Amino acid sequence: MDKLTLEARNVSIEFPGVKALTDVSFQVSTGEIRAVVGANGAGKSTLMKILSGVNPDYKGQIYLNGNPIELRTAMAAKRHGIQIVYQEVDTALVPTLSVAENVLLSNMVMDVRNPIVRWNRLRREARAILERLHINVNVRRLVQNLTLAQKQMVLIAKAIASKCSFLILDEPTAPLSDTETAELFRLVKHLQATENIAIIFISHRINEVTQICERYTVMRNGEIVDTSPITPNTTTREIVEKMLGRTFEEIFTKDKVTIGEKVFEVSHLSGADGKVNDVSFYVRKGEIVGIAGLVGAGKSELCKTIFGAYRRTAGTLTLNGKPIRIDNPTHAVKHRIALVPEERRKEGVLVNENVTFNLSAACLGKFCTASFINRGKTDANARNYVQNLGIATPSIRQVVKNLSGGNQQKVVVGKWLAADCDLYIFDEPTKGVDVGAKQDIFRLINDITKQGNSAIYASCENAELLSITDRIYVLYDGRVMAELITANTNEDEIMHYAVGSNTMYA
Amino acid sequence: MQATLGNSARGGENARRVLRFLLDWAAIITLVLCFIIFTLVKGSSFMSENNMINILRAMSITTVFGIAATVTMAPDGFDMSACTLASCSSYVFVSMYLWYGLPLWLCIVVTIGVTLIMYQLTMFLILVCKIPDMLATCALMFVHQGLGQWYIGGGAVSTGMRLPNGSAPARTALSDSFSAIGRAPWIIIIMLACVLLAYIFLEYTKHGRFIYAMGGNRQAAKLSGINIKGYRYLAGMITAVFIAVGGILVASRGSSAQVMGADNYLMQSLAAVFVGRSVGGAEKPNALGTLVGAMLVSTLENGLTILAVPYYMLPAVKGAVLALALIAAYAGKREQ
Fold this sequence. Notes:
The complex is a heterodimer.
Chain A: E1 5-15, E2 18-29, E3 33-38, H1 44-51, E4 59-64, E5 67-69, H2 74-79, E6 82-85, H3 99-110, H4 119-132, H5 148-161, E7 166-170, H6 178-194, E8 198-202, H7 206-212, E9 215-220, E10 223-229, H8 236-244, E11 262-271, E12 276-284, E13 288-292, H9 299-307, E14 312-319, E15 322-324, H10 329-334, E16 337-340, H11 344-348, H12 355-360, E17 368-369, E18 372-373, H13 375-389, H14 405-418, E19 423-427, H15 435-450, E20 454-458, H16 462-468, E21 471-476, E22 479-485, H17 491-498
Parallel strand pairs in A: 3-8, 3-9, 6-7, 7-8, 13-20, 13-21, 16-19, 19-20
Antiparallel strand pairs in A: 1-2, 1-4, 4-5, 9-10, 11-12, 11-14, 14-15, 17-18, 21-22
Helix pairs in contact in A: 3-4, 3-5, 13-14, 14-15
Chain B: H1 2-24, H2 26-42, H3 49-73, H4 82-98, H5 104-128, H6 133-152, H7 176-180, H8 186-204, H9 206-216, H10 218-223, H11 228-254, H12 265-277, H13 287-306, H14 314-330
Helix pairs in contact in B: 2-13, 3-8, 3-11, 3-12, 3-13, 4-5, 4-6, 4-11, 5-11, 8-9, 8-13, 9-11, 12-13, 12-14, 13-14
């Protein structure tokens, strides 16, 4: 089998608001398992999207075996044998069709001669591919009835069934359990041994990278900063240091807040379909408690389980010394708990409504006279928060979808501030928010706690957690790995626990 | 302790499997139960050859429109205007035969042709103007009603009536072969042929599978190289043919083309598709499921009539059956 080499030379891309790639050069050859690592927003996904033809507006040139190729459409990338398996496997499978059809769908399209489906042959061929990869799934089952891990396997089989020389796995292990991960690694090793294929493995879990990859490429702020072989001497810490760099510093000086009694306690909480396991922690009055962990560690799931949006299977919640029951978000709001969700456009704001309505939406009752909305009161409320939060909007009647991401986020926060809650849960509040707005949001959260309220702050940006929180719980696989006092910890220590190390940080 | 845990977990697994089985086959189980109960209560006045043919005849028009809806819904489309278009088809069919005296086979061909042409408008709104199916076809309902009645001059097309322009019709009576289309056994044979054709197309041709693929996940289908617009169009054209056939059956059965004569079949044909969706765990609109759905509705109607349930109660019963079938289809879905 001839070795194939895919090479990107001086590739750049820009989009408004998102960190772009600058002059990235990347090379990979068949027969190798390559890791691509980097912090959130380092540009890993952007680069992979370019290679798979989903980001057509790149500058620079991509070569296959030295011949220039254009990867401007997803189909073009597939024709050149570049296949990608996204973390969200459901976007690439047809749930209502059988495993056999999903595996061979592209092949059926290519085969123009036979209009009739020969079910026996189709199933036999699909079974042969699955057997070749040692994947044990019944080809007659509908994809919608498979587990997530099985869907991933089917998707890999689908890639292999069509032309595949370069297989990109985008954070494949994030949603998998330990046994499922081991099974995936077995498959990856098997592919490497039996097919002429390069596997590009994107992961946040550094211990996994050192386990199965031969070389790793580190990206930071849209650039490739290093490509090195993995030797028995390569340490997790070494890779993490390269990922973070030493230049990355977020300056925010927090005002001191006196911390009082325990106000909220979670004990042995499990739920969210197994993504939250036996989590216990507490929050004191005036305190900001950080929830650290990598993408997929279960931070959002934890926030939503506390808030009653996901099902709780075990555990108790205590507010001000009294046990409380939160089975749905209505209960949570009654107990004066607010959630500022991660997907703000989907879950946080009413994008087609104006600023005034959004800012009063969480507590419309306050602004009503006998069930009729009092425009004067809502306007006054809106003006107050627009000014205090520094929301950049031409008018309080502006429709929220026309605001920038950071300002939308401020609207979400403002909406809950108006509701006067005691405990605020922030889930990735700075996601997609520029540096200036980040500072405003930090200031805001700091101010909330000054008034004697408390906050839970979930984020995968460790630098932010270090500057805003008082204590940090580190999650891995839905479990609390460590409780850290912010003043006595650092990014390395958080990362150490976030990648699933069981040992004490030295 | 470990063992009991294992057992109870396995017990739960088994219970879930049994429940799943019951839900998957709910429509068929209900159908069989209906047959058993009606036979036990009414004996031979229900379970007789004549009455079975009654049931089949009564369900055939609903089934044909159900098949049209199945083909539209397979690629995740929807057509609210199918039956108003079918009314137009029936006007064309009867007027070609009575007014212009065309031979029967040519009337059928012209009707299918005109329906296909009318369906280009539906496809234009959906594929070119990118209007969501539901909204586009809602608007088209009125367009079909208006255009159709303009063509027939506002009154029914039947024997002994003059053309809107006052001239005499070419034929004054319907032939036996015209009427035979709407009677047993032909109407039943036509229904079964439609079901069989749609079944073969959707289950055994690549094109059918691609249509299902785009219905299940449009993006994934597109990235697998499927021409999704092309297949939506193909599904639309096949739907149009079944709509035309349905319109012909309605006209032949009623020995005339009544104003808006086919409009009322829409809801029951959709009900048949929804009931049939989950049959056998298919989880998608499918031809055999639609047949079962239509048969269930028709059997209930027939049996309850024999039981002397007042006719005005029947819609409530039909509605309840539809609701139960939908519960079977959507119960046990995981929360999002």
